[in-house]
Amino acid sequence: MATTQNTFTGDGSNLGPFSFTFKWLESTDIKVTVAGVLKTAGTHYNLQSLNYATKTGGQVLFTAGNAPADGAAIVVYRQTDDTDLAATFYSGSAIRAQDLNNNFIQGLYVTQESSNNAASATSTANSALTASASATATANAATSTANSAVSTANSAVSTANSAVSTANSAVSTANAASASAASAVATANTANTNATAALNAAAEALAYVIVANVAAIPASPVNGDAIRVTDSTGIESFTPLSGLPVGFIGDSGLTVEIYYSSSTSTWVWVRYYATDSDSRYLKTTGGTLTGQLKADDSASTALPVYSFDGDVNTGLAHPGADELALVTGGTVRLTVDPSGAVNVPVSLSVGANAVLDAGDIGVSVQAYNANILTSSAIGSTVQAYDADTAKTDVAQTFTAAQRGAYVTLTDAATIATDLSLGNQFQVVLGGSRTLGAPTNVVAGQSGVIRVVQDSTGSRTLAYNSVFKFPGGTAPTLTTTANAVDLLAYHVESTTRIAVRFIGDVK
Description:
Number of helices: 4
Radius of gyration: 52 Å
Strand order of the largest sheet: 22-24-26-29-30-28
Helix content: 10-25%
Shape: elongated
């Protein structure tokens, strides 16, 4: 049988070249399919290394970005143009042997291609079930017709060769041969159509041999062996096997169908389905789930893995390992972390009453402070409600005395005062000193600074420019030993502290 095609298998990256060996009449008769899809020369691939002298063989090189997919069947075949004869003769015209040969080569190639198609259809149909028997008979008849056409064409070649000596006779003989060749082309086309029908019928009627598991797949298959594996566990690791869906994992509950192709020396994936769909798949209504229900391992909280039809941004999310989140409207409302701690990132309420959390201490409620003036029963974690508790932002009427303890200042060349420590301050002068600019100054604070001479006396006190006195004149201390002077102050701003001097208090 003449070679009219060569087959290869893609690997997802190889562009070629793929060498073919069959003879051809015109380069346009060379066709390429990938996974059964006809490709376009100059777009998907280019032909190269064509021997125009012998018109035999050549190479196919796929263009960038058009590498055949992994496992895809690549078929490089000849499809001789049968629309018109290669050459047409007219009465009285010169007859060239090359034209005659091209006409008969055209008929021969078309017949070879038809014969090969018919033979392939016959082989497939013979292995099919009863459903393909009729198609097999049709293909066999087509093969017989094609063989007859070959014989007729050969006879025409012989007649044409003898007609070279007599031009007029050659014209008549050539026309008769052309008519025979045209008839052969038509017959071959019919054969090809019938062969295609046979192939389709055979594909539907593949006789699958049932095997229990992957280990039972035949080790020495022949072309066309079709296997149905009822327990597909491990099929993803079985070789050689082409066409396995990405990510497919075999299972005892999944049946897989494959067939063997000798042209690629590999098993070819057909399909898979549940061995018992009722026990494997959830029903839309009813049924009991006996195994573990798993969701996609997505950390998205905008689209939680468990959600509702028509409300996909509300449900249960999985933001991280060992974590759960309750989500509404794409926003996390409650989380449970790996330690079991429950966190509410937004405000929590019981009915119409808000539930307080740690962030509310010092905002919504008063944090515990032993120095806050409250009743003796208050003082655990937060300041409980007490009508006697003073507030900072409303006018107060005190019914009991309010006292501030003296803060003792450290005697130094420059005396430092931190106004955040209290309102009343005192210092015993051990030498002539300067009262420095206070820190943490806030407008509105008032109080007294009590200045005491030590047992020696005669100590003087200078003042930082922040202190302002009546008439702009700083006072002179009483210098008697152990004398007491008072500086009553009022903070106007961070740069002005008004002072009234009360001297020699006895």
